[in-house]
Amino acid sequence: MTVHVLYENPDWLPPVINALRSRGLEVIEHFVDGGSIDLAKPPPEGLYLNRMSPSSHTRGHQGGVVFMKEYLAYLESHGRRVINGSEAFSLELSKVRQHAALEAFGIRTPHTVAVIGKDAMPAAARAIAPPFITKHNQGGKGLGVQLFRSHESLDTLIADGGYDSSPDDINLIQQYIEPAEPFITRVEIVDGRFLYAIRSSTEQGFQLCPADACQLDDQFCPVGAAGPDDRFRLREDITASDPLVRKLVAFCRAHRLDVAGIEFVEDAHGNRFTYDINGTTNYNSDLEEVHGLHGMGAIADLCLRALLRRVA
To answer: In this structure, are residues 52 and 280 in contact, taking their beta carbons and an 8 Å threshold?
Structure first.
């Protein structure tokens, strides 16, 4: 009954580790930032929980992302159960793949153009009428997201060397969806089950991460000072019976996304556009405490069920 937790950010660990141990599970932590894989040997027995984030490069751990892509395939080739395995991780690392998969599933996304190399961005942007946004293909927390009201403003930024490219050098030009109200919605799903939805205010920018560790420590995720943050509220009007939620739950099952926080925005006409899938989801303890919710508990319960199935 061992859970191997693969991670690169220790600040995100305590809630999930505590939830796993409270269910009587043995936890072995594996810090991942590069390394080696002995392909002649099988990996240790047990369940593996993937907590590698696409934003790892902001903490100097891009080597962990590269390593994890190969390590997950190695684990699965030996029959090890991985929570958010190679298919889920492949989606999380690429917004290009996310958009293609969402569209193929019949879920509306904003018009998006992928660009290899930032120097090609000005020409590619002409395919989308202003306003539009830029974002990183391998992102997280809104990194690389900037709003442009004209093509010329992007031209100037690129010419002046002011745009930092995605770590994989793939950047997106995307139709800007003007929200009916200044917030986006994030739907939390674990093991094919809807947990809850939160609304995240966009009034102070696009870098939105509701995790407690981001509030305290992460300069790349300026959620604010420690303590309750009123930018994040529960959307009690979004339930498991919501048509989009039902589609997103089905999407997660189809693509082996065991854990996901999926974001969408609604325009003034009531149209919903889904644009981001987060596999290394974190939860805001203040919001959960107020409403009697426990996202990490749901992840721990998933791990326990998966282990019990393997030993049954």
So the answer is: yes
